[in-house]
Design brief:
Shape: globular
Low-confidence stretches: none
CATH superfamily: thrh gene product, domain 2
CATH topology: thrh gene product, domain 2
Radius of gyration: 17 Å
Number of domains: 1
Order of helices and strands: EHHHHEHEEEHEHEHEH
Largest sheet: 6 strands, parallel
Number of strands: 8
Strand content: 15-25%
Structural class: alpha/beta
Length: 200
């Protein structure tokens, strides 16, 4: 019983924080888990920055509603889902991701939770589990699934290495250099074939 676990940002959709940063002039928000492996530190910075600059949840959601998946992502996902089960395992939040999930054909999404104060600011977040991606693949393995994983960043490495097969996709040169033993792809056709071989 195989199950594919895919990261979302940079794999199927643009890096949402980077797009927001560039689209609104908030350049400080371009930092992601590619540069900052400590997710809690990164999120606390984002939460503080958003409040300081009077950016509320509704402002983020409105921006993300206009984003489109990466070119070829919907076709890749449709093709992949015809041969195996797929779960999107992401450190994003449903409030951000739902418009993009609709554009991707409503794949299953495992995400985290936001805490919003009465003024509409993000004031905290809740992880589904302590190590969201690693714990997810381990839990799936504990109920009989063999996992195949793909992602682009530091926070994907644990789930990639814990799976029977794993791939970097659209990863930075820095991440590729630090994990030279992980096969890296940059085209959807390559990733599909890598997963197909792992399934067989």
């Amino acid at each position: 019983m195989d199950l594919v676990c895919l990261d979302m940002e940079s794999v199927l959709v643009p890096e949402m924080w980077i797009e927001f940063a560039k689209g609104t002039g908030n350049e400080a928000l371009t930092r992601t888990t590619r540069e900052e492996p400590d997710y809690d530190k990164l999120m606390q910075f984002r939460i503080d920055y958003l409040r300081e600059h009077d950016v509320k949840l509704r402002d983020l959601v409105q921006f993300f509603e206009a984003l489109e998946p990466l070119e070829g992502a919907r076709e890749f996902l449709d093709k992949l889902r015809r041969i195996t089960q797929v779960i999107i395992v992401s450190d994003t939040f449903p409030e951000f991701a739902t418009p993009l999930m609709e554009k991707l054909g409503w794949p299953t999404l495992f995400a985290n939770g936001l805490e919003i104060d009465e003024q509409g600011f993000i004031c905290g977040y809740r992880m589904r589990c302590e190590h969201s991606k690693l714990d997810t693949v381990k839990a799936l393995q504990s109920i009989g699934f063999e996992t195949i994983a793909a992602g682009d960043s530091y926070n994907d490495i644990d789930m990639i290495c814990a799976s029977k097969a794993g791939f970097l996709f659209h990863a930075s040169e820095q991440v590729k250099a630090e994990y030279p033993d992980v096969v890296a792809y940059d085209e959807y056709d390559e990733l599909f074939e890598g997963i197909r071989r792992a399934l067989s």
